Amino acid sequence: MDYLVGIDLGSTRLKAAIYDLGGNLVAMGSRPTERFHPDPAHPDWTVWQPEQIWGGTADALREAVAKIGGPVAIRAVAVTGMGMDGVPIDAGGRWLYPFISWLDPRTAPQLEWWKSHIGAEKVFSVGGNPLWAINSALRILWMKEHEPAILERTDKWLLIEDFLNFMLCGRRATDYSMASCTLLFDQKRLAWSDEMLGLAGIDRRLMPDAFPAGTVLGQVTPAAAQATGLAEGTPVVLGGHDHLCGALPVGGFRPGVVLDVTGTWEIVSTSIARPVLTPQVHRAGLTIQAHVARGVHAAWASTPAAESLEWFRRQFAADRTAAADAPADWGTLMAAAAKSPPGAGGVLFLPHLSGSTCPVVDPHSRGSFVGLRSVTTLGDMVRAIIEGLDYQFLDMLTSFEAGLGTKAERIIAVGGAIQNEFWMQNKADVVGKTIEVPAVREATPLGAAILAGIGAGLYKDEQDAYEKVCRPGRVYEPRAALAQSYAEGFALYRQMYPALREIHTALAGRAFS
User: Spelled out in words, what is the top-level CATH class assigned to the domain 306-397+484-508?
Assistant: First the structure.
């Protein structure tokens, strides 16, 4: 029996998953991803300590390997995870400063500098990135300003997956999908952009060489073998960005497929043959990124999703049978929503509790209920939130198709929300398209394992791997009887943002105690 290992560096857990070539999960180990706040003068500064990232991952690997009786059958390993957090490494391989976490707000001044000196449109036209304070280049600029001696000693700035690969095999490198997260990568050339590096004043020597995902980097070193339980000499293969790896085992990398990853946030992505770096795509809030699947790019956008339901449950849906302030359980809320008719009793919800990211980029926009009456029920409001989130998804989908010139032939849903049958059926009804929910466990580390298998020659390519690991699951068909009602509801939904924009902008400019 041959096995492959996918390591998933998440913001809450470090996972090591072992799969057979059919995509069956045979063993897993995990450890928490620990947040640290080392500077008392800046309690909101948040870092990941490299020793905890490596130590926790090594422990998770050792746990998983022990469950299969040892590493002899493991043919290769690859890493996936979060995209933008990096660490400076010196020529001797020592880390010089912790990873500045994506949760850390310190790079806000560098973001403003970038906006005024380089501009959002310019960076998108080269790298396909929206400007976020968490972009890797802004961490390097912060280091240049506040810790210049450390940056001077730095040999390479390694993103968090690249750091783990370095600890496993000693190679300093990255893949195209991770390099795409930095603001410094040219999507058309698939190479570091001398232009962006020059505008930012960042030395090219800091950036590791970039290769396609699935490239063999090296072999597990003796020291790494001792720490992890992996066999010395096991091939270490380049993985890539987590949500793109998660597309591989469910077929989300194929043309015409839209992958909808819904949890606290919703990530909507599709593959495209070439990078589309137009102003229209930029204004819609899309990111264009090299895919982990070879020969294609990804277009994607993200926005808060289940966060809206959790906010409502926590603040307004108390369980009257439990202790004071205990929120209602999800089953109770979904049952109440199901009793509300389609259209939620005339209530609409604009899910902009954290601003708007796609298809309109507006951080000042706010969440809103419209149409509340004295007869509005709890179920109406919960249903309105779900319908509002699904209208938002349809709005994003429409923006994708218009900006990219693509057509959503299939929609595949993964993530925590797929457990909510009411939500999934409503999404199919609102969009008017079939929603497929594959029966795949732990898609993200499985995607990394697939890349390990491609690198090791156990799969011919992504399509070959997908055909071997795919697991059909539940299918939600849209109900034709609701099509007209939801088409009318979507038209009203699209009027909400422009109608409320000036009010929300004014509210954002006021100070509230």
Answer: alpha beta
